[in-house]
Amino acid sequence: MLKRFRVSNFKSLLNVEFRPVGLNLLVGPNNAGKTNLCMALRFLGRTSGHPLDAALLGAIGERWNVTNLHVPDNRNLDFEVECDITFRGLTLHFNYELRLESRRDEKSGTEFLEVASEFLKASGGRFANTPLVENRAGQVRMLHEEGFDEGHPNSPFYIQATTATNATMLSRLFELENNPRAILFRRHLQSWSYYNLNPEMLRSPEVGRDDGRLLSSGANLSRALFDLHNQKPRLERKLIDAVRDLEPKLDLFSFSAPDPEHVHLFGEDEKAHRFSTRSMSDGTLRFAAMAYLILIASQQAETAGFSPLIILEEPENGLYVGHLKPLLQRIEPDGRLGQFIFTTHSPYFVDLFDKHLNGIHVLKAGTPSSVVSQPDAAKLKQLLEDMSLGDIHFHELLA
Questions:
Q1: Where in the chain are the domains?
Q2: Is the dihedral of CA 213, 214, 216, 220 positive or negative?
Q3: What is the distance between the alpha carbons of residues 186 and 215, in angstroms, rounded to a whole number?
Q4: Do residues 135 and 119 touch, judged by C-beta distance below 8 A?
Q5: Is the pTM of this model over 0.85?
Q6: Residues 265-311 pLDDT 10s
């Protein structure tokens, strides 16, 4: 589970530290930096599986305007991660540091990123802040983990290599037995997912060829549910039971796949009457997608040894507030079955965190940087005697 995330010189964020728990809520006015923090997390997660250029494009939709405008002379972007992951029954603590340098191609005028330095360390068992990967501008050292763990007389020993600086070394690791901890950490980063669900895209029948996960807009929901239907029918039944709170006539999902690029999603009632996604409300589709993410995260956490990180922007959009509470109750607040970060502007959704005060994070705009703070839990409990948490947020008393 992610314990600490620090980012510096990414958009409005300069030396910003974020310490999430299992269930988290980001609040603050428009342009406070909530989405920038989510983008920074999303970008770092994508660097574990994509070249920097593609990771940036996938995270923020462009390859420029990345660094903070108030410090134009600083071309370095810094990221730090601390997380705990279970490995062979032992909790390992990982530290990951990545420094990128923003450069400009003088001929084309385009900006691009390069790896300046990258360090991954692990603690637990025989490992005590032991470097697993060291990357200094493409000059790489990688630990033979298994030899070190077994206490071979010549260990620790490192493999040296040279690599291009347009991607992290973490993204280039082969799935070898020599590096199981580094690979596990990479899989954890790859589990970091961001969603800003779009109802019209949720109705799309296009398959959306990627890594099989739900796309950030929800555009391949039909394909995701089709895979669930074929591979995890018991999980599909749990999803249908959840969605029936909004769509009582739903008894099962059915599909039509006229070609390899399209899957059409239908609901069916108990009499086998079909209805398409056009007959489902925007809120129902968003609820179905969020419930799907919660269920998939839970299953992945049980099998992978780590809690996937799921970021959801403004879950209240288009959804009756009464359905938000049972949705949130499906999440284990300790994060062991998935770590969740929500953003919101709704005092009604804020209200649902009155039992999870340690997961509230307030962002405020500032110059040169956005600021992240956590409310004083003791003061909040005192205020809660007279008003709801949503009212406290509305009156700007959280921070």
A1: 199-296
A2: positive
A3: 20
A4: yes
A5: yes
A6: 999 999 999 999 999 999 999 999 999 999 999 999 988 888 999 99
